[in-house]
Amino acid sequence: MMLDTDGSKPIYIQISEWIETEILRDNFLVHDKVHSQYKLAEMFNINPATAAKGLNVLADENILYDKRGIGKFVSETAKKTIQDKRKNQILKGLLKEIVREASHLQMEQEEVFSLLKETYKEMGSGLK
Predict the structure, then answer these.
(1) pTM score of the predicted model
(2) Which candidate among 6, 21, 76, 127 keeps its CA 20 to 30 Å from the CA of 31?
(3) Residue 28: left if φ>0, alpha if ψ -120 to 50, beta else—which one?
(4) Domain co-membership, 15 together with 72
């Protein structure tokens, strides 16, 4: 992953989102130890405090839990928590933008749905 250091999204949020994606992809499983702040700092060439902030965001959301003196680990509810968060925040926000733009373009619902289905096919999505 490449960090966007010029963008508006803080680096610690990009780190937390990267770890979330790794959990969703099963690269980190329940009770697996995730990378330490120092390992993340080395991997992404960032300050360890920034990496720690990203890990703490996930701990605050109960996606990770701490074993004192050992590190941070993936919680049992991590995957579901991430899925719910991304559905209700990120995906819903994107859909609102789509509906807003479709409204500006005076598109009918069926036309928007058709366009979405077409996009699924083009991308070869594995969605059900």
Answers:
(1) 0.79
(2) 127
(3) beta
(4) yes
In a domain, 1, yes or no: no
Rounded CA-CA distance 79/62 in Å is: 11
Q: Is residue 50 part of a domain?
A: yes
**Token pair 């250091």 is at which residue?**
5
50 and 83 belong to one structural domain = no
Per-residue pLDDT of the chain (128 residues; tens, 9 = 90+): 778 777 888 999 999 999 999 999 999 999 999 999 999 999 999 999 999 999 999 999 999 999 999 999 999 999 999 999 999 988 899 999 999 999 999 999 999 999 999 988 888 766 65
DSSP secondary structure, 51-113, as one string: HHHHHHHHHHTTSEEEETTTEEEE-TTHHHHHHHHIIIIIIHHHHHHHHHHHHHTT--HHHHH
